[in-house]
Automatic annotation (TrEMBL):
GO terms under cellular component: plasma membrane
Keywords: Cell inner membrane, Cell membrane, Membrane, Transmembrane, Transmembrane helix, Transport
PANTHER family reported in the protein's UniProt record: 2,3-DIKETO-L-GULONATE TRAP TRANSPORTER SMALL PERMEASE PROTEIN YIAM, SLL1102 PROTEIN
Transmembrane helix is among the record's keywords: yes
Name of the protein in question: Tripartite ATP-independent periplasmic transporter DctQ component
Organism name: Marinithermus hydrothermalis (strain DSM 14884 / JCM 11576 / T1)
Membrane topology: Multi-pass membrane protein
Localization, UniProt: Cell inner membrane
Family: Belongs to the TRAP transporter small permease family.
One Pfam family in the UniProt entry: DctQ
InterPro entries: DctQ, TRAP_DctQ
Tripartite ATP-independent periplasmic transporters DctQ component domain segment(s): 29-166
Transmembrane annotation, as ranges: 21-38, 58-75, 96-119, 139-156
KW Transmembrane helix (keyword) present: yes
């Protein structure tokens, strides 16, 4: 079990680093958005446009990365939106069972399915070096690659969460050590 917990901690550390990177991505995305808005408005008054489809698409790509790659970090911190009217009333042990079963029967299979289904789209995009059809648009193949990468990260975090829930159920790990925010 200790080996599995070390694997879990390594996965947690990876997704923590990526999540922290997403904080900076938000700032960069906002700066690009402000630049787009200001240059578009100035272009209306001056007749000189400094904005382009590339900046708009970059903003969309950054938002996509934030959403996709932030999912595993959000799961790690138990911050996903959930309706927990019943869940909150359950004992910690029952919540651990629900989380474990949810990870094993829903999260992990769904992540595997999305990786499998998205792979042909990504490989086709790389094969033709797909670019945006809009004038001045960006390449599409890098952002399409973010989809399976995101679900690999989510899959790994699901495995980590399952390991921690098993450790809690076996009494090897306490809820406080596990870091189960929202379990109280």
């Amino acid at each position: 079990m200790q080996t599995l917990l070390r694997v879990s901690r390594a996965i947690d550390a990876l997704n923590e680093r990526i999540g922290r990177l997403m904080y900076w991505l938000v700032l960069f995305m906002v700066v690009i958005g402000v630049y787009n808005a200001v240059t578009r408005k100035l272009g209306q008054y001056t007749g000189v446009s400094l904005s382009s489809n590339a900046y708009l698409e970059l903003q969309w790509y950054l938002f996509s990365l934030l959403f996709l790659w932030g999912a595993a970090y959000t799961l790690k911190h138990n911050a996903h939106v959930r309706v927990d009217v019943i869940y909150a009333q359950l004992s910690s042990r029952k919540r651990a069972w629900i989380d474990l079963l949810g990870a094993v029967f829903f999260l992990i299979p769904f992540s595997l399915l999305v990786i499998w289904v998205s792979w042909p789209m990504v490989s086709n995009s790389w094969a033709v070096l797909e670019v945006s059809p809009d004038p001045g648009g960006l390449p599409r193949y890098p952002i399409k690659t973010a989809i399976p990468v995101a679900f690999v990260l989510l899959l790994l975090q699901g495995v980590s969460e399952a390991i921690k829930r098993v450790a809690v159920l076996r009494g090897v790990l306490s809820l406080e050590e596990e870091g189960g925010e929202g379990w109280a």
